[in-house]
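Board notes (copied after class):
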Amino acid sequence: MPPRLAVHVLDDNHARRAQIARCALALGHHAEVYADPAELAAHAPQDGVVVALEDAIQGGVSGLIGLLNQEGRWLAVIATSSTPTIDKAISAIKQGALDYLSLPLDPDRLAQAIEAVSAEAEALQGDRSRKVAARARLNALSTREREVVALMAQALTNKAIARRLGISPRTVEIHRTNALTKLGVGHSIAAVTMFLEAGEAAA
């Protein structure tokens, strides 16, 4: 049995939320319930597993993960559906869900899913959390500052960046300095590392 986890139940139906929460509690976990993704994101939980009704998530699973990412969070997501299909399951998994369950939930199936997902999430947590934190910091940059950091990641000098952007080397230096300050780093290598960790290299 996995250690006691926080299970964040996201469902727009009160009765279903209560049923899933009772299942989680019976399995020895802590349960929190939310009626919509905005409520979950507002609480921005730092750990645990999200059990989310697919139909209650505007923008699908990827939309929910994106909403949490905006708060600097990454949590494992188990998608649920009262009208499951193979196509829906494949879509949810492709969007980032680590499992897909049909409703009403079978307690044994939920237990298996939480155990499997929590083990996988532990392996992914460090990498995903660093990526989310890096993206959150990069989002604080202006468009021009972000362009400068992107070109720094290509190992271009200030003069080369200036030519590429059609601005002066001095202006590049100002944007570089501002970017380092906003990212909370002391040198260009750290800024480039953060940019690459965020998965922005192809942007």
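Comment from the instructor: The first strand starts at residue 6 and ends at 10. The longest helix spans residues 107-138.
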